[in-house]
Design goal:
273 residues
Length: 273
């Protein structure tokens, strides 16, 4: 049992789980727009996510107490950086430039530049940066990689994904109420847990409504989106400050993986259109 707990803790703490979540959202975008799920792009996004998230989580330890990092974390980070470089040579400069812009935001999110403050510490901006980067990486980059024109439908998808990830992050924000400094002014700190959940519900309704404004509405996309919104809604409404260890870090972050599974099932087994 201890070994299983060790594996699960390692899987979550080294950001491998969140990397699968990000790649799943890339897959959702590819299936929605009938574009190729490129293995080289998935590899790049996967290892880029592991590298970026571990950098954000452990930047302070790395710069001050490097020896305190566990050996397996150092190994995973080293492998991720090497793999990231390998896959980068298989992508176009356009994709790398777009990805680089999101990487810069990730860097500024963790490293203090002005008055010992990073983007994460700026009032009320923490969750917005996360949602913007996730939306850019999981919607715009796979589209750009295939050379598809960024039309209105794609920008609507980008905004939907931004709102979806914003709400996906709210259970973490509620959990972190007991840890975050008051100066961060996160949404739960400013309006309370109840109003945070109401805000999330409104955003999820907006995500669903935006689907109806697209020129091309696919039934399977609408069904999978509706199901996943209900799932996220259940988790949001059951979020509280004192959560079980894996409520947010595993189960909530599994929602994008479930979404990819649902839309894949609908498309490849029922061919609903």
């Amino acid at each position: 049992m201890k070994f299983i707990n060790f594996l699960l803790n390692t899987y979550v703490n080294t950001s491998v789980h969140v990397a699968f979540a990000v790649c799943s959202l890339v897959g959702v975008t590819c299936l929605e727009y009938d574009i190729n799920i490129a293995a080289n792009l998935l590899g790049f996004v996967f290892f880029g996510t592991v590298t970026g998230y571990n950098f954000v989580k452990y930047a302070a330890v790395t710069t001050k107490r490097y020896n305190e990092l566990r050996f397996h974390l150092k190994v995973i980070q080293l492998v991720s950086v090497i793999a990231l470089l390998y896959f980068s040579f298989q992508l176009s400069w356009v994709v790398l430039i777009f990805f680089g812009s999101f990487a810069i935001l990730t860097f500024l999110y963790a490293i203090p530049l002005l008055k010992n403050k990073n983007l994460r510490n700026l009032t009320g901006i923490k969750i917005t940066i996360v949602a913007f980067v996730w939306a850019g990486v999981t919607v715009l980059i796979p589209i750009i990689n295939e050379g598809v024109f960024l039309d209105l439908d794609i920008w609507l998808t980008f905004f939907q994904r931004f709102l979806f990830v914003f709400v996906l992050t709210l259970p973490f924000e509620i959990r972190d109420l007991q840890y975050d400094e008051s100066s961060l002014e996160t949404l739960p700190q400013r309006v309370g847990v109840k109003k945070t959940k109401v805000t999330g519900v409104v955003m999820l309704v907006l995500v669903l409504l935006l689907e109806l404004f697209k020129d091309s509405i696919k039934f399977n996309d609408l069904v999978s989106l509706g199901i996943i919104i209900i799932v996220l809604l259940v988790f949001l409404l059951n979020s509280k400050k004192k959560q079980s260890k894996y409520f947010s870090s595993f189960w909530v972050e599994s929602i994008p993986v479930l979404w990819f599974g649902i839309i894949s099932f609908l498309q490849f087994y029922f061919d609903i259109s």
